[in-house]
Specification:
378 residues; D-Maltodextrin-Binding Protein, domain 2; arogenate dehydratase activity
């Protein structure tokens, strides 16, 4: 997986794509030496949104590209290469082995995300549910937990937001953006023409609908793709394949028949890294983000958003969850749901403007809880 970058008319375009996969124009998107050197030598673009505010994340991407150019991190074909492991060297650890808890079993995409997040990682599965992974960190059995929170096609994983709200001792210390790379796995010796049935999680099957239709195979949904991969390895069935990760192929000795069979090459999954008693990015830290939860009186969400807008703090995402301890609000004879809002804002909680925003939010909100401040995974 490479990130291709192009400068056209003074504006930067950056996209993750598989090498050799053509762009919409039919030609591979490349970031050639001359396309980066000249614009960077002339000016460092300041990205601005429609309201005139500077876009810190986009500017940070260009800063990183300049560093990569100076360090010579180019492939022979001119593409800018971002290391696949780890995504963010040293971001979450000082190089010592870190025990990372994740849901499920070995061979899962959560294990792959844990390995991408840490330089040296002892990724350990804890139970079948995500709550067991969080409890492992609370009990000291692991230092961190990796939790999927949203997918670019399927949206938010609401249950995991609910779990984070319940586990108040844990904070978000980082995020990992992982390109979805669905592989067709089979027992050694199995060829593509012999496959009659493909097994995987319903979400993975939906992501690979076009390829499965082209193969003309029977699709079977199961709860756990990693478990299906292990059972396939144990049975050695020659007419069955599993949609899973390269990690699963390595763990269970399966053959990767095809890679990148998903319908959408831009499909990404976002994971949170959770821990206890963690430092936040300092004031003025580039490309920092804070995730917080709050409850507002009826129909007054606009007041909370205004608190951030008046300080030029960008709100990147809003989710709402029913408020469990008091789910209903009664007005006359009508019942209304009460909601907790979970918001991502592009600032560290240590920034003075963010501190003032949180102070004002606490004056008008039913409750406010900062779930964590962390560096954005570029």
């Amino acid at each position: 997986m490479a990130v291709s970058v192009k400068c056209i008319g003074g504006s930067w375009r950056c996209r993750r794509e598989h090498r050799g996969v053509p762009s919409s124009s039919g030609k591979p998107v490349r970031a050639m030496d001359g396309q980066i050197r000249e614009p960077c030598a002339k000016t460092k673009p300041k990205f601005r949104d429609y309201f005139g505010g500077e876009l810190k994340v986009e500017t940070a991407v260009v800063d990183r590209l300049e560093r990569i150019y100076k360090e010579g991190k180019f492939a022979k074909n001119g593409e800018v290469l971002f290391p696949a492991k780890p995504l963010s060297p040293g971001r979450f650890s000082d190089g010592r082995p870190v025990k990372v808890a994740y849901q499920g079993m070995r061979g899962s995409y959560c294990q792959e995300a844990a390995v991408r997040a840490f330089q040296r990682c002892d990724a350990v599965p804890f139970g079948e549910g995500m709550e067991e992974a969080l409890e492992a960190v609370e009990a000291g059995a692991a230092s961190r937990a990796v939790v999927p929170v949203e997918n670019s096609l399927d949206g938010a994983v609401h249950r995991n937001y609910d779990l984070m709200l319940r586990h108040e001792d844990l904070q978000i210390v980082g995020e990992v953006l992982m390109p979805v790379n669905h592989c067709l796995l089979a027992a050694p010796g199995t060829g593509i023409n012999g496959i009659r049935r493909v097994v995987s999680h319903p979400q993975a099957l939906a992501h690979c609908n076009y390829r499965l239709a082209a193969l003309g195979v029977e699709a079977e949904a199961v709860d756990n793709a990693a478990l299906a991969a292990r059972l396939l390895a144990e049975s050695g069935a020659s007419d069955t394949a599993v949609i899973g990760s390269r990690v699963a192929a390595r763990e269970f000795g399966l053959r990767v028949i095809e890679e990148g069979i998903q319908d959408d090459d831009g499909n990404m999954t976002r994971f949170f890294v959770l821990g206890k008693n963690c430092a936040v990015p300092g004031a003025g830290a580039r490309a920092a983000k804070t995730t917080l939860a709050f409850a507002m009186p009826a129909a007054e969400l606009y007041k909370a958003l205004g608190i951030f807008a008046m300080r030029d703090i960008r709100v990147a995402k809003i989710e709402s969850r029913p408020r469990r301890e008091s789910p209903l609000r009664v007005e006359g004879s009508v019942n209304y749901f009460e909601y907790v809002f979970v918001v991502d804002v592009e600032a560290s909680s240590a920034d003075p403007a963010m501190e003032r925003a949180l102070d004002q939010l606490r004056e008008v909100a039913g409750f406010v809880r900062v779930l964590g401040s962390y560096l954005i995974d570029l």
